[in-house]
């Protein structure tokens, strides 16, 4: 196509005009009044922000600091709801676990040791950390579910603490007086007003769960919750249970059965509907606590005389069914279990995953299942080479930590956007700092 020549400049004539065969300059360059409306730009940015991976909340926080427009988008509660709906199940932001330490002091050349104390720890596996994600001396993590973490502190009259690590909200709950008498039975006091258990015949565990009606448990922040407590007293030959409601701020009446079943104090709990399950020590059975019907029962996994049955660990819930797991011959074996007639469980092995192609050779030694992230199908494995995760859907594995002594990990799952900015003034933070300072002052 021949290039057309520009007409010579003459008075009153634009040298670049439409009759010269070219687009007018005013049409070829963007003009101030022709930019896209801000609303369209904001809508486009919302769609972009919506696609930021939920396990990378730091990117959203940084984006909110770029300009007031982005800050407004990311701080909007409507965007937070759209973001959660777009991604579905909450991501795993980290996990909690307990460690035990010994106080010590030196006298001359001799180092003396006192009794152990527990420390709860949070390990981030995403770009997430708030002031609530700290080491807590004397606090033992019991459960993590629906964005909440349940702690127990071995100090009389303090009992339980519940914390939302995202928002910083915190609550303290005293145990039911009757339950407290059982929990503290056989515990002795020392000079630091701490208690150590002497009567091993009393075992118990507790779970926390959202109590909001019709909740899909994608976003449970600020909602009511329940704390279910189940225990066993061999001397009294009974298993007991009670539930605390934040709405009523009261404990239910204690229900019990004359059937002692030592509760696994470091085991995982599972929740299906209004029922919570706890594993028993050294027996192939689970304790089922129906919180709505206030009923307590024991479910046998199988006959204890079955020597071919491996030891199964209760992990959680998958597709509405209880999930149990174990590792045999370098294979991760998963069972799903439903309650059958006559209190006998109907369980089937529904999945076997070969760990040889997924883990390095050094990680195939001493493998044990220590945690499970519900909703995203991620199993946590403790090995001689460190802590690994395996995705059940894809089979992908990932090394999370170099420590090799994890007995139990509690995955923490929640969404975190700018709208969920932590409340730094939370009374639980000051309470935590108070306990930490006291513990540091008494540690020699």
TrEMBL record:
Gene3D superfamilies named among the record's database cross-references: 1.20.1280.50
Record domain F-box protein AT5G49610-like beta-propeller: where: 225-414
The record's annotation in SUPFAM superfamilies points to: F-box domain (SSF81383)
Q: Please list the residue ranges annotated as the F-box domain.
A: 40-79
What name is this protein filed under? F-box domain-containing protein
Give the species this sequence originates from. Triticum turgidum subsp. durum
